[in-house]
Specification:
Layout lengths: L4 E8 L4 E3 L6 E3 L2 H7 L9 E11 L6 H14 L5 E5 L5 H11 E2 L4 E5 L12 H13 L1 E2 L2 E2 L4 E5 L2 E4 L4 E2 L8 E2 L7 E3 L3 E3 L13 E2 L7 E5 L6 H8 L6 E6 L9 H12 L3 E6 L12 H8 L3 E2 L5 H12 L5 H9 L9
Parallel strand pairs: 1-4, 1-5, 5-7, 7-10, 17-18, 18-19, 19-20
Antiparallel strand pairs: 2-3, 6-16, 8-9, 10-11, 11-14, 12-13, 14-15
Helix pairs in contact: 2-3, 3-8, 5-6
This protein binds aspartic acid.
Length: 341
């Protein structure tokens, strides 16, 4: 079997951070400092190359132009490498992973995002294990084909589908969870792959979509939400789509002014997408009176999608030049494994 080739893309994040002498705050540093701390990278039975963002960043500073930058590096090197590892801050890793899953249609290779909760230079760091296993997964092939042809997050011995993962802890090494979908692999003495749930290799050629539209907003419902707050968002002419973060199985207050606002927004051509505040479970519009009115108003149910995947799916679809009807149809469809069929 041919030796695998893996490209590491360093974007920043805690993994490569050092303490600023003056402020005491953590700030991103160079990839060479990571490579120095992890000499094991040289022992792999695969060839590893690395490229870095010119200015590595804290992932809270990520925006769609950074997703496009990562996507462009992968697109340019797609044929040359068997897999890709993106070193990324954990704060917005689930957004980037979701966004990249929509960028790459018919992906046949692994794109594994990882990072760490403690910088690589700290004694108890989780950086080494995360990076080393992420590289191993990105390099893994069966009959010359990637074992995991997906955009994933690897963290603390678990491999998640990227658009199903959420950051749920800022302190545990186990920073991510995938509440509505099984993990794709677990690393112990061996790496055990959950082949039943890993996407099958595509039959078609890779298509790369590098456009995002950020004219979207979120309304997070809470008891006592005011009509001023809601109408400021729903009546904003520059917004093309709005996510309603609803209670439980997709419920929102059944009040006349709210129903009128939502109906008008839909009539005006805004896409309104229902995503639950619950991490686990799914939207069932119509189960309660408090969600039936949303269905009647033309709101699209987000099933069991994460907020991160919902935002990036909307950004991707709204930039695609599709008709309103087509966007609604695609929103309800499972495009990259982001929601249950
Ligand atoms: N603030 C950091 C970042 O997301 C946190 C981390 O890397 O874990 O870049």
């Amino acid at each position: 079997m041919k030796k695998s080739k893996v490209l590491i893309i360093y974007t920043g994040g805690t993994i490569g951070m050092v303490q600023d002498v003056d402020s005491g705050s953590l700030k991103p540093f160079s990839f060479s400092s990571i490579a120095k701390q992890i000499p094991e990278l040289k022992k792999f039975n695969c060839s590893i190359k690395a490229v870095s963002f010119k200015e590595p960043i804290d992932s809270s500073n990520m925006n769609p132009s950074h997703w496009v930058e990562m996507a462009s590096v992968i697109e340019k090197n797609y044929a040359k490498y068997d897999g890709f590892v993106i070193l990324h801050g954990s704060d917005t890793m689930a957004y980037s992973a979701s966004a990249l899953s929509f960028v790459f249609e018919n992906l046949a290779k692994s794109i594994i995002l990882t990072g760490s909760q403690l910088p690589v230079g700290e004694i108890r760091t989780d950086a080494k294990e995360n990076l080393i296993t992420a590289v191993e997964i990105a390099a893994s092939k069966h009959k010359e084909k990637s074992i995991v042809p997906e955009v994933c997050i690897y963290f603390d011995y678990q491999l998640f589908r990227g658009n199903r993962a959420v950051k749920f802890s800022s302190t545990k090494f186990e920073a991510f969870q995938s509440f509505n979908f099984p993990i794709l692999a677990e690393a112990g003495v061996n790496i055990t792959y959950n082949t039943d749930d890993i996407l099958k290799p595509p039959k078609k050629k890779l298509v790369v979509h590098k456009k995002f539209c950020n004219e979207i907003a979120i309304i997070h419902f809470f008891p006592g939400i005011t009509s001023d707050y809601v109408s400021n968002i729903l009546q904003n002419q520059r917004l093309k789509a709005v996510i309603l973060k609803t209670f439980g199985a997709g419920n929102a207050p059944k009040i006349d002014w709210l129903a009128k606002e939502v109906k008008n927004a839909v009539k005006e051509g805004k896409i309104v997408f229902n995503v639950s505040q619950c991490e686990r479970g799914e939207i069932t519009q119509g189960k309660y009176e408090t969600s039936k009115w949303l269905k009647d108003a033309g709101v699209i149910a987000g099933k069991d999608i994460t907020t991160e995947a919902a935002i990036t799916k909307l950004m991707y679809l709204m930039a695609g030049g599709y008709s309103n009807t087509k966007v609604k149809k695609l929103l309800m469809s499972n495009l990259r494994g982001e929601m249950s069929p």
